[in-house]
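tool=predict chain=A
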Amino acid sequence: MSNDFKHTDDNGDEDIVSRTQIKREAEALQKIGEFLVDMSKNQLALVPLEGELSAAIVIARRLKNREGKRRQLQYIGKLMREIDITPITDAIDKIKLQSQRQRGLRKEAEVWRDKMIEQGQGVIEELLTTYPDGDRQHLRQLLRTVIKENKDNAKKIEAGKTNTVNTQSLKLFNVIRETLEFS
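tool=predict ok
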């Protein structure tokens, strides 16, 4: 029997591993490699990558040819079989968790902004009860400008101008998101 099908655990015990199991593990590593290739530069900088693996990921990010990229991903999977991927998977999990948190904050900030625009100043008090670190005066000022901007944009739309942008609404959203994030 070939050594390819023997697996040694931490205690030095050898287990026989099936070809199917080996293939599943290789595909899982290749998927992790694909995730690494698809990450943004900032996210990738947070992952502890070394030498040849790092270079292989950089090359894969540049490849446009589908077949070439597929082969490069297989190579990345092969390189990952030779190293301890625990720090890499831990970093990926942390990045995914941060991304989920950011999406949740954005969604919650959108809800608060829309509620403020619809219901007015009372919602600011409700927000600050839940998140006391917010700037009441700044939020009130922004809400007033958003409401004024919305009225102005409604007049422009009636006049036939369809190129209206709600910049103040975006500013209000950003202030609410920061309030949620730092409270």
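The chain is about 75% helix and 5% strand. The chain has two domains: 3-83, 100-182.
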